[in-house]
Structures are given as C-alpha cells and as structure tokens.
# Entry
Amino acid sequence: MRVLLVEDDPMLGNAVTQALRDASYAVDWLQDGRSASTALTHHNFEIVLLDLGLPQRDGLDVLRALRSSGDATPVLVITARDAIEQRIQGLDCGADDYLVKPFAVGELTARMRALARRRAGTSAVVLTNGRLALDPATKIVASGGVEQALSGREYALLRELLVRPGAVLSRAELEERIYGWGEEVESNVVEYIIHSLRRKLGADTIRNVRGLGWMVERVPDAGTVTS
Amino acid sequence: MNASLRKRLFLWLSGSILAAGLLAAALSFWLSYEDANELQDAQLTQVAEVLAHSSLSTSALDFTPRTNEDAEAHYVIKRLGSAPPKADPMIDLPLPESLTPGLQTLEQRGVRWRALVTQNLAGERFAIAQRMTVRDEVARDTALLTLLPLVLLVPVLLLIVGFVLRQAFAPMRAMSREVDQLDGSQLAALDERHVPLEALPLVQAVNRLMRRLALVLDQQRRLVSDAAHELRTPVAALIVQADNVQHVELPIEAKTRMASLRQGLSRMSSLIDQLLHFARVQGAAPSLTQRLELNALVRSAIEETLPLAQSKRVDLGCVRTDAVAIQGDPLHAYALVRNAIDNAVRYTPTGGAVDVSVSLEGREACLVVEDTGPGIAEADIERVFEPFVRVLGSQESGSGLGLAIARTAAHALGGAITLGKRHDHRSGLRFVYRQSAT
# Structure
C-alpha cells in the first residue's frame, strides 16, 4: 500500500517512515506543504498522513486544495494541537481522521487500516474491542481463534458493550437496551447473562466496575483482529 | 503603622465639633448669666423707683411679707439706720446709715445681698435688697436653658459625621472586597464606575498594573502551552522509534531495558498532557457554563482511569451515585473530577481501593474520593496543591500537577476542595469537592 507522509520534523518523519516500512507499507516522505501538494496532483496514494504545521504551505491549505480538486484520498491528520476547535477545523477541511501526537505505532497502523477498509467499501460491521470480534449478521463471537454462537440476549448485551469498548454501562442501561418496550424485566437477568458470557468467553472478558456497571476493555493495540 | 483615613477624619471632625460646642456653650452660658443678672438689677431699680415716687407711708418701707413661704426669694425693703430687726431672720438685714446710694453687693453674716440704696420723695433713705443665692439661681437656670439646643445638636452632629464618613468610604471597602476575591489566575479590572474622584487615580493605576500582570500571566500560560505542544513532536518521534525497536530481534536483557525506556516515554507524554491541561484550565474563560450531571463526569473519568487502576490492581468504583447537577464549564468540571480520581488511583498501592461518591448535602453537590494510600500529613496539605510538589517519601511517578489542576478548576467553578483523613480511621486520603448544586 502506498502512503504519503508529510511531516516537517526529521526525527519523527524518520521514525514513522521506519515504522511503516516495518509494517510493509510503501512510504513517500515529504517535508513541506508545497511539495506535498505537487506530489498529490501527480501521483496516487492510498492514504495521506498529514502534519498540520508545515513550512511553505500550511497542512490545512494542502488538505483544502486536495479536496477542492475532487480528490477523495483518505487523509489522516497528525498534529500536536488537540484543542477541540482545531480538530473540528481539520475535519471540516476534509480530514478523515485525526491523530494527536504523541501516538503509538499500533494506533497509527490501526487507524490506517480502518481508513483503507472504509475506502474499499468493506467497512467492518464486525464489532471488536481488539480481543473479541462480534459479527452482528451471524451473532457469532470470535475470541482467540475460537468462534462461538450466542443466544439472543447474550448477543444483545455483548453488542451493547462492544459498541464503545471501555465505556461502562449500568444495569438499568443494559436492561433498557436488551428488553423491548413493555417486556417485563426479570430480576438478576443482567448478572445471569454476564455469567454465561464469561463462561463462554473467559472470566475477564466482561469486567465489573464497582458501583457503576460493566464494560469490556479496549485492548490498546486494536487492529490485530480484523474482519 | 497605617493610619485609617476614616478614623482620622472622624476624630478630627468630632473633636472640632466638641470643642466648638463647648466654647459656644461656655459663651452662651456666660452671656445669658450676665443678662439675667442685669435684668434682675433692672427689676430692683424699677421697684425702688416705684417705691420712691409713691406717697406710701414709710411703714410700707418696712413691709414684711405675711407668709413665710419662700421667704428667701423676697425683696427686703428697709429704712437705713435705726430700723428694728425683722421678725423673720431670713429677711433680716441690718443696714447702716453709712451706705452710699446706688447698686451694690453687701455681705452680712456670711450672706451676700444685692442692694439698691436710694431715698423717697420724703428724703427718707431706704434700701431694697435681695439674696444673691436666689438671683444666682435664677440666672443659672436661665443660662442653662440656653444650652439645651447645643446639648441636643452635638450628638446629632457626631452621628451625622460618622454616617457620612461611612458612606463616603463605602466604595473603598467594596473595592477591597472585590480585590480580595480575585485569585491569581483571573485578573479582572476593578469597577471604576462608583469610585470617588479622589480615589480614581489609585484605582486606575491598580487597573493598569492588573492589565500588565494579566498580560504577563497570559504570556506565561502561553509559554507553558507552546512548550508542551513543541515537546509533543520529539516525544512522538521517540515513542515511534521505541516501537520500531520492538520489531528487531533483541536479547532478553535489551528487551527489559526497552520496556523501562518505553515506560519513561509514556510518563513524559502524560506529563506533557498534564501541562497542557494545566495551561488550558488556567486560561479558559469561564463563559461556557452549562448544567452538568456530576455522575456522568464521574463515569467518564472512571472509564478513563480504569486501565491505570487495573494495571495496578486497584479496585476503583462508586459507593454512591445520587443524581446531582452543577453549573459550570465542562472543561473545568471534567479536569477536576478526572484529576481527583486519577490522583487517588496513582497514590494507592497495589491491591488498594478507591471509592468515589456523589451526593447532595443540603444545597451543595458533594464529590468524595477516598483512597487507601498513605494520605497526606496535615502540614503538607496546603503545599500539595502547588504545581510539581510531591510529598516526601512518595514512590509514585505522577506528574505533580493533578491537584494543582483540580484546584485551579475548582476556583473557576466556584467550588472548594478540602483534603483530609478518611473518616473510618484507615490510612488514606479523603478528597472532598463541594459546589452549590443546581
């Protein structure tokens, strides 16, 4: 996969180039905005990694010019500025995703894979926290290479937890989401479903947070599990 | 010693009023006293003239009042010389022939008299006299009456002076209160509208100083923020490089050393984040106030702190989650809650617990975070709010900014943080934040 990296800092540029080559990407690295614009008009890249604070031509300018020429190449903006307004500004200018420095290589490559998938139109509908992968179409969960079928309620509960890994959901929230309108809520049903999910998938797949509810952990190096 | 202007004014003004009042009183007393005496002399003269021109028998001259009622006050009318003594000793007054005509003061047996010696048409010499004590009493009473308005006026004047001074200095007091309420992070100019003309130059000078200070503070904040932003790029490069090294086959020894290098890098990166948060919390204008559910903030903060808690096997959870809302800037409120919880987890040893509770106490929203760490000695409690201050003996590698951020945020929100011991006598810190609920 051919990637354009636009980063003016030699140290970071070198490190990222090395990291991406290690991950078998073909990387072209440029250090200023003007040459980035030129390269983008003459070559095709599958992903652009764009720093915003660039000499000669600002990163946002490069991005705006790219989008106004009708080019839809996925752009992942990399910046030291994380103030919310600046993020929104970047997204408004046509960035597909945003990565704030400093970042781990795993996070960068995971986001690049997600962008590539989205572009290919095979955007993963599989829900994953990096360790579990749940396919809504088949209600089959994969964990450590083992696939298991889930019951309707087990699927509904796990789905809620996997929508946002790392988020804590309370009993009331889980009950509300796995029961339809007017259905009578059985007592301890949430505990019961979680118990059976833990039996199938391992005791620490669903964690209890005292006084608040349950969650599935977000495994930092997400992307090792792909659809 | 700083002299109070108001006190000095009051002392001088009331002293002058009292002195003037006393002087006026003395003068008025003396004048009316003299007046009353002159009047009584004139009366004596008139009575004498009436007697001298009347054709009354001389026996009238030896008139003796019939009643003894207030004999002291009576005029004594008597022929000079051989007249027999009066029956009533109160009005008995021996008068020798040798007295010269006219008004005079006599002294007889220790009693002073005012007497007028004259003669009637028949050429008989006689005297008309009155006791001085009676005359003096009348004069004194008259003079004292003239003092009454002054006596009433002076206290009223003193009260008015006190009141006027108080009113005049009210803007100054209001302003000192205003200045007292400013904390170091928000330097607002003082309100110049109600300042008296005399104090205006001072207030304007203070405001100019505040503007300069605000500028310096702002530059300092921006420097911290810019420096942290600038640091992000090289730190990102280091982290990526450290990640790259992992892809190379390394001896076991090198791998463990890489792990501690990566740990150091992640600590550096979180310090940079905290610096940015600190600069942002200090600089943010508290204008974006909105209603915030405290529970939602606590939940997000716990979600974000859970990875750290789990890596240390610290049991992080809630013991009470009442629905309570506060009013404030979400940036400040989240920074406060996040740092309170993060700090507690950081200073709790492996296997410990951190309990968070949200409750409504009276009209105050109350966030309590209790840990089972070493706690903070009473003497250190003020110090730990300062940036980069770590308590001696603490093993934890926090940023040293958590509580500084929390307190800055608390100031901006209008609430207060208190640190103390746990109520159940276990070792640990009890962090309490209170703010009026909405």
Observations:
- Chain A has a mean pLDDT of 84.
- The radius of gyration of chain A is 21 Å.
- DSSP finds eight helices and eleven strands in chain A.
